[in-house]
Amino acid sequence: MIVHQIFGLLGDTELPMLFKINQQRTIKFCNDNQYSYRMWNKISCDRLIKKYPEFIELYNNVKYPIQQVDIIRFIILHYYGGLYLDMDCYPVIDKLKDDRIFRVADTQTNHKKPYEIEVMQSAPCNPILTDFIRYVKTQIEEKDKIKVYNTWKCRYVYQTSGPHSFCRFLKLNNIIPETYKLNNPDYDKKKLLNLTGQEDFISQISCSYK
């Protein structure tokens, strides 16, 4: 089992303290369970995307760098398999479940966005992963024609390469994935983590849409 994380695609060069703490938690989790750990950066991500010529143009020409992060996580899992985990998340589960089964994050309380892409697990070569990237291309083409998305940056990302797009893709294809339970934080002034006590992974508040 490989646990993957990504940092450095947004022009950032030093891990924020929150990310450092979560990385340490994740590495300890890997060591405790004899999993491999891999941190991906811009160089390694750019190298990997070249193995997927179908998606190079899409990857290199997205409007916002955060969309590259959204796309490359699917490529990483397609090529290597394992678990992908965002840097603002950390595991509280004792051990990962069967890695032959496709799993995503269950937000538990968000019915409009029941699934998240902050936590995903797959065997290598899972066609769902590349099929979603093809769907992302159609959503970018569609949303680029709508003027309001020129100013709705976060919504544009969510609706093209992010979790809202992913939830639509699953629904359109009648895919009901297995899940890990994730909390659903509030990004308002209170910034509540909204923990239920049932979480396998905890998502913290860190939004950087560059």
Total beta strand runs:
8
Give start-end ranges of low-pLDDT stretches: none
> Helix-strand pattern, N to C?
EHEHHHEEEEHHHEE
Secondary structure class reads alpha/beta
Shape: globular
Multimeric state: single chain
Distance between the termini: 31 Å
Instruction: Bin the strand percentage.
Output: 15-25%
Largest sheet: 6 strands, mixed
Tally of helical segments:
7
Q: Which range best describes the helical content: under 10%, 10-25%, 25-40%, 40-55%, 55-70% or over 70%?
A: 40-55%
Give me the Rg, rounded: 16 Å
- With strands numbered from the N-terminus, the spatial order across the biggest sheet is 2-1-3-6-5-7
- Return the domain count: 1
Mean pLDDT: 94
Q: What does the model show?
A:
It contains 7 helices and 8 strands, in the order βαβαααββββαααββ. It is of the alpha/beta class and 210 residues long. It has one domain. β5 and β6 (115-122) form a beta hairpin. α4 (65-80) packs antiparallel against α5 (127-143). The two termini are 31 Å apart. The model has no long low-confidence stretch (mean pLDDT 94).
Topology record:
Blueprint: E1 2-6, H1 17-33, E2 36-40, H2 42-49, H3 53-60, H4 65-80, E3 82-85, E4 89-91, E5 103-106, E6 115-122, H5 127-143, H6 153-160, H7 163-172, E7 178-181, E8 201-203
Parallel strand pairs: 1-2, 1-3, 5-7
Antiparallel strand pairs: 3-6, 4-8, 5-6
Helix pairs in contact: 4-5
Structure keywords:
7 helices, two-stranded antiparallel ribbon, alpha/beta, 6-stranded mixed beta sheet, 210 residues
Summarize the entry for a quick read.
With 210 residues, this protein is of the alpha/beta class. It is 40% helix and 17% strand.
